[in-house]
Amino acid sequence: MSSCQNHKHCIDDALESAHRICIDRKLRLTALREQVLRLIWQNHQPLGAYDLLDMLASESSRRVAPPTVYRALEFLLDVGLIHRINSLNAYIGCPSPSTEHPSYFLICTQCKTASECNSSNLSLHIESLGKEQGFMIQKQWLEVMGLCQECQECQEDNKKSKQKENNENPSSEIKPS
Prior knowledge:
Strand order of the largest sheet: 4-3-5
CATH class: Mainly Alpha
CATH superfamily: Winged helix-like DNA-binding domain superfamily/Winged helix DNA-binding domain
Number of domains: 1
Shape: globular
Strand content: 5-15%
CATH topology: Arc Repressor Mutant, subunit A
Number of strands: 5
Number of helices: 6
Structural class: alpha+beta
Order of helices and strands: HHHHEEEEHEH
C-alpha cells in the first residue's frame, strides 16, 4: 500500500529525523533503538516485537532479550518515531514524527500492509462528535481494515482465471436414464 519504491531513502529520512529529534530533545538514540527503527522502516510492513527479535538475531551474533526490544519500541513510540497498530499487535514507522497528529491507518486484511493517512477533516469531525457527546478526546487513532489495491487486483485476476477455467471446462450435465 505504500507508494515508496526506494526504501533506502525512507530509512535514511527516518534515521535523520530520529537523530535530529533526539538531539533537540536531549534524548539518546542507542544503536539498538536505531537498529529497531531501521528494521521497522525497511519494507513498510508492520512488524511485531518477536518479528523484530528474529530479525535482530539474524543480523547479530549477540542475543537480544524480549524486554530489551520492548524498551526500544517504547522509546520509539514515546518519541513519536513509530506507531503501534493495535489490531495487528505490530509497529510501523511514522512518516511525520516531528508533529503530534492523530493516527489513521488503512490496513490490508490479506497482505497485512498498512499505510498512515492524515486527514484534518476527519480529525475535526471526530473532535466535533466528542464535543456533542460531552466527551473529552485525549488521543485519536483509527484502524480501517480492507484490501489494498494490489490485493484487489490479485483477487480480480483470480476471479477472471476461475471464470475462464469454468468456461473452458463446463461441468458435465447429468442426464436422466
